[in-house]
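User: Some background: our group keeps a shared notebook of sequences we're curious about, and every so often someone picks one and asks for a predicted structure to add to the entry. Today it's my turn. The entry only has the sequence so far, pasted here. Could you supply the structure so I can complete it?
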Amino acid sequence: MDSPTQLIETILDLDSSVQRQLRLIMPESWLNSAMPLSATRALFAIERGHANTPRGVAEALDVSRTSVTGMLDRLEADHLITRTLDSADRRSFLLEVTDAGRQLVRDLAILRREQLALALTSMDVSSLESLKLGLEALTQAMQQQARQTVIEQP
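Assistant: Of course. Here's the predicted structure to add to the notebook entry:
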């Protein structure tokens, strides 16, 4: 029987493998843009409301502000975001996802769900039930961790 540490390492490796498999199948619109993964992460951060300024994107992705400039240039060139001067702080820009950017995020989410559903249909009921229980426990643990983090923040 594996130790908890060994099980955790195996689960993390399996998660990485699943994520790699999902990245292999991307919508044509994403493939045609040849957008780097970092720019994709920036788009998701902006679209999900985690960042609406270049500084916010840098903080959300834990990268330098100079790195963000290139990402935002790419997103803007691909018509996925717009940048407008912040009227409250004219040294900064406000970022907004365009309709095309929102559509790309939706396409990626739908495709991910479809790919997972397709893989799940090939699993037997016992494996599906075990996976369901495990994911429910993981979700609860992550929610508890998030609540604890909020409590501990000053």
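Suggested note for the entry: Helices lie at 4-24, 28-33, 37-47, 54-61, 65-77, 99-121, 125-152. The chain has a mean pLDDT of 88.
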